[in-house]
Amino acid sequence: MNVSHASVHPVEDPPTTDGGNAPRVRMKDIQGMPGTPGGLTLRICQLIFAVAALCVMATTNDFPSVTAFCFLVAAAGLQSLWSLSLAIVDIYALLVKRSLQNNQILSLFAVGDGITSTLTFAAACASAGITVLIDNDLQNCKQNHCVQFETATAVAFISWFSALPSFLLNFWSLASR
User: Fold this and answer.
1) What is the span of the domain harbouring residue 76?
2) Which residue from 65, 78, 44 is spatially nearest to 149, judged by alpha carbons?
3) With contact defined as beta carbons under 8 Å apart, do 112 and 104 qualify?
4) Is 7 domain-assigned?
5) Which of 9, 46, 48, 110 is the most exposed place for a label (fewest CB within 10 A)?
6) 33 - beta bridge partners?
7) Strand locations in 33-163 (E)
8) Distant-in-sequence, close-in-space partners of 73: CB < 8 Å, separation ≥ 6
């Protein structure tokens, strides 16, 4: 009886052209995250609107008499400093083509954006309540700077609207790791 015996001949893998096991690569960074042109744009918008709210409120001579307006000035000042510092970091990252996607940096950005956007929103809401009280309820807009108060409040809300996507993108990126 002639039975054939199966034999296994190992076949080697063809060599890879990329030099071995390549590290895992994340998908492209989403615009609006730190170190991207969209992130820089959001930071510059935050900075411009926070400085505008700060300047408009500071041009009135009676804003220190209302605590909510003082809170708006403080929150806008903090938002402008935070946005300026992170805009500088984003510019540096774009110039040297460096990714800002490690956990420590994302944690810092997410916490800072969360704090500053919450303070800006709270200050804008408090200032909006006071401007409604002065204008609609007390009918005392002729003696106060209602137009400046309303403008500063509206610009603070716009600054918050531009800070919120930064916070959400940083938090989402941190949570998805």
Assistant:
1) 37-175
2) 65
3) no
4) no
5) 9
6) 31
7) none
8) 54, 57, 58, 63
What pTM was computed for the model? 0.79
Residue type, 99: S
Q: What is the chain's length?
A: 177
Judge residue 139's burial from the number of C-beta atoms within 10 Å of its C-beta, 0-12 exposed, 13-18 middle, 19 or more buried: exposed
Pair of tokens at residue 141: 């807009």
Q: Report d(CA 174, CA 95) in Å as an integer.
A: 24
In a domain, 30, yes or no: no
In sign, the C-alpha dihedral spanning 120, 126, 128, 134 is: negative
Which stretches of the chain drop beneath a pLDDT of 50?
25
- 3: alpha, beta or left? (left if phi > 0; alpha if psi -120 to 50): beta
Residues 6 or more apart in contact with residue 76 via CB below 8 angstroms: 50, 51, 53, 54, 57, 120, 123, 152, 156, 159
Segment 61-88, tens digit of pLDDT: 888 989 999 999 999 999 999 999 999 9
- Distance CA(146)–CA(36), nearest Å, equals 39
Contact 171, 114 (CB under 8 A): yes
Number of domains the chain contains: 1
- Give the C-alpha separation, 74 to 177, whole Å: 34
